[in-house]
Write a structure and sequence with these properties.
This protein is of the alpha+beta class and about 500 residues long. It has helices spanning about 5-15, 30-45, 90-105, 125-130, 140-150, 160-170, 185-200, 200-215, 255-260, 275-285, 290-300, 370-385, 395-410, 410-420, 430-445, 445-460, 465-475, 480-495, 500-510, and strands at about 1-5, 50-55, 60-65, 70, 75, 85, 220, 235-240, 245, 270, 310-315, 315-320, 325-330, 335-345, 345-355, 360-365, 395, 425-430.
Amino acid sequence: MKNICLPVLMIFLLINMPLLSQNKPELYSCASVQKLDSLFTILARDKTFNGNVLVAENGEVVYSRSIGYADFEKRKSHTGSSAFQLASVSKIFTTVAVLQLAECGRLNTEEHFIKYFPDFPYPEITIYQLLTHTSGIPDKEELFFPVLEQRPDTIFNIRDIIPAMKSLNKPLAFKPGSQWRYNNMGYGLLALLVEKISRKSFGVYLDQHIFSPAGMKSSYLLYSGQKSPFEARGYLIRTHYRGDVEAVDSSRKLHPWIRRLGGFVGCSNIVSTTDDLLKFSIALNNGKLLKPSSVAGMFEPTDLSDGTPVFMDGEFGKTGYGKGWFISGDAGAYDIVMHTGKEPGFFSFFLFDLHRGLTIILLNNMESPGFGKACRESYNILTDSNYFPEKRGKKSLFQAYIKTLYFEGTDKAGAFLNVMKSDTANYYASEQELNEMGLELLNDNQNEAALEALKLCTALYPDSWNTYDSYGKALLLNGKRKEAIMMYRKSVEMNPKNEQGKKILEQLTK
């Protein structure tokens, strides 16, 4: 951890005084750095952040810290060398690659994508619309999840996107340019475009034209054959009622899906470190990767075809979107650019404040509940503001119920639920959460608690076929065959497309 206090900070300011604008506020007083360190001390104590944080001013590190484990099983602690899956933060590198090719005159972002891929089934879509998420094309869930359900051993990559679109034969969600909808496969297509024009694999292109010029020696594409000895394992919350974790690569539920979709580059799957991401920001700022005009265009807010600006309200307030970056600012001055990333087991956050010369990077390899707070509060502390207001969300009624059921028994849990279910100001209720946590209990051999939770789910949500299917599974695993048949029969009657339920019912009634 670097923790710069007054003497070192004063030396830094004196050496770099010409770089700092006279009208910029002093960001990194000893008090603000100490306050930031206190925030991460609390997050570390509460085990609500697990990863690395780095803060820099004009390219100089003023605070960095490693918290928690890169590998829980081996008790391997994080260091500054820990390498993380960046998830959707990878999109900013795809944008830079496309704009580099545009600077060389090898493409124009206003061109139609079909010019380079004649089989592309949506001829009206431009490269610009893919960059700005205004294309309306089908996304990964629509294109590939149904196929994986039928053929779970299939491994997909970006070369499968266009054939899948042709096979699906689905109209666009909206007229291109008329709406904004975040789309991963659009960035997969852009990676495919980079490969075709450069005649290099996407990983090789990144190495030669972005990572190497920026000095990013610890960055690479996942599943490319490269692997850092410091690559962090991703972890999921295994059981929400206990808060224990399991590695993504050993998760029976998720790992097969993640590996099957690991070839979707451009939208995700870059591995990097906080130090390398800082090198990237410096190279971008110094013109090593793009001309200043291209960088400015990348941060320019997108307007829809009717002239209205793109705006969305998310975890970090109202933001617009440029090319590969979310953009924000006060009174229309878009001086904050950022991107977040989320993949099973990994969260990432990358922010530039262009006015202040501030870079904030947070990388996390666990489903840490304090990650969003860490991102928002880091910026607020360093700028002495409330720019990102803390979101006081409602608590999960069923998560609290399941914890009570597990630790204190059926009677206490029932009493808690009866008292709190009407407190809609502080609690929210989700059928999916109750069902999933009931199944967590079942998978953890907590059979009585699982039966209680899944029975409750059928009572609270009697119009959901899935609740009967899950309760039937619990009954069957507990030797209650007749009752299980009743539940599966009810589920299949409500949803004739429940093929798995039909198979089980057929076996049970032979």
